[in-house]
Write a structure and sequence with these properties.
This protein is of the alpha+beta class. It has 2 domains: 225 residues, no CATH class; 88 residues, no CATH class. The protein is built from 10 helices and 6 strands. The protein has a 6-stranded antiparallel β-sheet with strand order 1-2-3-4-5-6. Helix 2 packs antiparallel against helix 4 and helix 8 runs parallel beside helix 10. It is elongated and about 90 Å long. It is found in: Cell membrane. Keywords: Cell membrane, Membrane, Transmembrane, Transmembrane helix. Pfam families: LptF_LptG (PF03739).
Length: 350
């Protein structure tokens, strides 16, 4: 059963990838070849970067279809009836598929970590330059906010000059007891020791409404250059551990991380959907084939699987908007449909 399930799942995946990659290439090849320096090599490079994304996206769908095909075949040949007549329960009949689903989930997680994340990051950068030569990211940024204790620091521009980070247009909002005390302004600053030295600075005192010259002073002790140069994070282009580290860095500088935390949890719950598919498709395995309801059972199993994917995408979208907590956005659909699948199995077969 496990072998049948794996063979059919990966066969469906191969067919989907072949068809979808062909359609995707037809729509993108014009943009790739629009650059006069691009040719066949760049087209095949695009295929090598896009194919892992398609595999990662449609592997759960393939597992669902592989589950339904396997169980319908067993039911049609009365093999499920034979197994139940020998004393096996519905859960014991599904056990090989669930174990195989755990194997697929492990492969999916490793594939996403080692291949998909790197391919996604590279392809996103390539698309931003319209499939031309990709520029070197030297860490230059604009309009960056960083937190240092209670103070908020706004920098108009950050440049990496000879491996030394330079800050331009610095505004430090000095706060205490939850209220704004003063505003420190400077045109330029650089890292010296564990802090940042700014020159020709001046301070505006909120209480008195007066401006005073400060000159050279140190700000932001403990704030590293990475906290200034850290750009926006694409969770799909980072592995689980890289995304976790990026979230820690963003949280340290006071930036919002709720949407990224939901994506972090989803890197675990997403591959585990392969374990859920045999349970949702189990409705196609049971019942007498000659009753004429086998097709209806298969449709119901597929419908449950597609409803799960819709609920999963909806929950992630709500998590990105901040309406759902990150853990709930990633795990609620999985746990909900796990209970639905168990309830249907217990009610109809156990």
């Amino acid at each position: 059963m496990a072998r049948m399930f794996l063979v059919r799942s990966f066969a469906v995946l191969a067919g989907l990838v072949l068809i979808l990659q062909t359609l995707d290439l037809l729509s993108e090849s014009g943009r790739i070849l629009a650059d006069p320096n691009n040719g066949d090599a760049e087209v095949w490079r695009y295929v090598s970067l896009r194919t892992p994304q398609i595999i990662a996206t449609f592997l759960p769908f393939s597992v669902l279809l592989g589950t339904v095909i396997t169980l319908v075949t067993l039911n049609q040949n009365s093999e499920v009836i034979a197994m139940k007549a020998s004393g096996l329960s519905a859960h014991q009949v599904l056990a090989p598929l669930i174990v195989a689903g755990l194997f697929v989930a492990g492969i999916s997680f490793a594939f996403n970590e080692r291949i998909v994340a790197r391919a996604t990051a590279t392809l996103d950068q390539w698309k931003k330059v319209d499939y031309g030569d990709m520029p070197i990211d030297r860490g230059n940024r604009a309009n960056v906010w960083v937190r240092s204790g209670e103070n908020l620091i706004e920098v108009d521009q950050i440049r990496n000059e000879q491996s030394n980070t330079q800050l331009y247009g610095i505004t430090v909002y000095e706060r205490g007891a939850g209220s704004l005390k003063s505003i420190l302004m400077a045109e330029r600053g650089q890292r010296v020791g564990d802090s940042w030295r700014i020159t020709d600075s001046r301070r505006f005192d909120v209480a008195s409404g007066t401006m005073s010259e400060v000159g050279t002073t140190a700000i932001a002790p403990g704030v590293t250059p990475d906290q200034f140069t850290l750009s926006s994070v694409n969770p799909d282009g980072l592995s689980f551990f890289e995304l976790r580290d990026a979230i820690d860095q963003l949280r340290a500088v006071g930036r919002p991380t709720k949407a990224l935390e939901g994506s972090l949890w989803h890197k675990l719950s997403g591959p585990l959907s392969a374990v859920l598919m045999p349970l949702l498709g189990a409705v196609a395995a049971f019942g007498v084939a000659r009753s004429g309801k086998l097709f209806i059972r298969a449709v119901i199993g597929m419908a449950l699987g597609f409803l799960y994917f819709m609920a999963d995408n909806f929950a992630i979208a709500m998590g990105n908007l901040g309406a759902y907590p990150p853990f709930l956005a990633a795990w609620a659909p999985f746990l909900l449909f796990l209970m639905i699948g168990e309830a249907l199995l217990l009610k109809t077969e156990e």
